[in-house]
Every structure is written in C-alpha cells, then in structure tokens.
Amino acid sequence: MTDRHQIRQQIRQARRALSGTEQQAASEVIIRHVAGAEHLAQAGKVALYLANDGELDPQPLIDWYWSQGTQVYLPVLHHFSPGHLLFLRYDPDTRLIANRFGIPEPKLDIRLLLPKQELDVIYTPLVAFDSRGNRIGMGGGFYDRTLAAWRQGLGPRPVGLAHNCQQLPAIPTDSWDIPLPELITPDQHWRW
C-alpha cells in the first residue's frame, strides 16, 4: 500500500467501521494518556478539532480540558488565506457553523482569535501514521502548513490523535510533510 489515495480510502473505511462503543472507549482512554503526561495535562491553551468521518472523537478530551480550566481552541478555515487555519476560542456555548467541508467550526469573531504561536499544543487529526511519526492527512495540507514552524523549532507542540487501526508499517512522505513528535492512540502514547 504505497499510494496515498489508496491509503486514505482504506484507513478512512476502517475507522468509519468502528462501532459507537469502540469510538467512545477510544476517546475515554485518550484522556488517561493526556492526564498522565504533565506537559499535556498542564497546557494552558490547546487546539483540538471536532471529529469528522470516523476520526477519533476528542470531545471527551475537550470536556476534560474545560474541567481543568484550560482554554480550548478549534481550527477555522482562513477566509483570506486559502489552505490555512485560524484558531478560535471554543467554549460550551460557542455557536458553530458548518465550513465548506461540512465540518462544524466557530463563527469567525476576531475577539476569539488566538495566534497559533500562542498555543501550547495543537492536537491534529490524521488519516494514517507510522511508527516514525509520519502522518497522512486528508490531503488539503492545512495541518502541514500550520505546523511548518514546528519544523524550525517554533510554535506549539503538535500531537496526533488516532485510532489503533490507523497505524501502518510505513507512510510514503513528501518534502512538505511534517512528522509528529508525539501521537496518542488508545493503546500507546508515542514520542519521537
């Protein structure tokens, strides 16, 4: 399996096949991994995402962070810079609207905007990963562009979230791909 398109199709199908019970159990285990990692548990400002297409659902983690007093932010498609993300504050009463991909995001309000370099952690969704931290996303490059500063040692720490079934022996990479320094699945907390 070396073709990215084929990988995306197969892994997306596998994660969509997970039952609601399996999804919920995976989300709950993620909280234990995060709570047990001081640098993640004590982060003051974190970016998460709302699950789509069978992605590991971070809503229980969002709820846990809220209970800890952590500020949570969600990605929003940048209106004036295509292919880029903005991060807006997300609270339990935040009004959400569907973006052009049908994914809920906060309504753009400049008062809720946080420059990404002020985040402590960006939890990233992904389609597939390997044991070296390489990842394949949905193909739009949004997170690769967002995490580009991490490659130079700047910006928030990226942490991938995935189901166990999303791991592959090796991921084909391109020069613009940003490997993750950390990834959490229900079975393991990877750090490279």
Automatic annotation (TrEMBL):
Coiled coil: none annotated. Its EC number is 6.3.3.2. The keyword Transmembrane helix does not apply. It comes from the Bacteria. It is an enzyme of class 6 (ligase). Belongs to the 5-formyltetrahydrofolate cyclo-ligase family. PANTHER family: 5-FORMYLTETRAHYDROFOLATE CYCLO-LIGASE (PTHR23407:SF1), ATPASE INHIBITOR/5-FORMYLTETRAHYDROFOLATE CYCLO-LIGASE (PTHR23407). It catalyses: (6S)-5-formyl-5,6,7,8-tetrahydrofolate + ATP = (6R)-5,10-methenyltetrahydrofolate + ADP + phosphate. InterPro entries: FTHF_cligase (IPR002698), FTHF_cligase-like_sf (IPR024185), NagB/RpiA_transferase-like (IPR037171). Its cofactor is Mg(2+). It comes from Oceanisphaera sediminis. This is 5-formyltetrahydrofolate cyclo-ligase. The keyword Metal-binding applies. Keywords: ATP-binding, Magnesium, Metal-binding, Nucleotide-binding. Gene3D superfamilies: NagB/RpiA/CoA transferase-like (3.40.50.10420). It holds the Pfam family 5-FTHF_cyc-lig.
